[in-house]
Design goal:
- The chain is mainly α and about 100 residues long.
- The chain has a single domain, classed as Cytochrome Bc1 Complex, Chain D, domain 2 (Orthogonal Bundle), CATH 1.10.760.
- The protein contains 5 helices and no strands.
- Bound molecules: heme C.
Amino acid sequence: MRIVKIIALTAIAIFIGTAAVNAADTVKDGKTLYLGEKYKCFSCHGEKGEGGKGPSFKGVGKKHTAPEMMKLAAHNCPPTGACSPKDISALVDFIRTL
Ligand code: HEC
């Protein structure tokens, strides 16, 4: 059935499109968090991730696996648990674009 195929392909296209938009959103959220006063990541890693007191993030996404990145990105969280997994995930999405 040709029509079924078309419907299936359309559904897949919509799904992929939505996923891409969601990823773009988390990158934007991650950037806001990165530059924000709450975590101050930028104060050590530079406003563009160029490094400073901490290492540069250039190509860091290729250096570590995604779970490793989640762990590393939380290294400076206050012990009060102020970094939510959602924030860390968005921060990692952003850092991986650098
Ligand atoms: C007080 C300074 C400081 C702040 C603030 C800071 N970092 Fe770091 N960061 C470092 C230093 C120094 C290292 C390297 C040594 C280490 O691993 O602890 C590092 C390492 C890392 C690494 C591993 C880099 C690599 O090349 O392996 C990641 C990822 C990272 N930081 C993410 C973050 C994120 C995300 C934030 C904000 C939530 C943040 N850092 C805030 C100083 C800082």
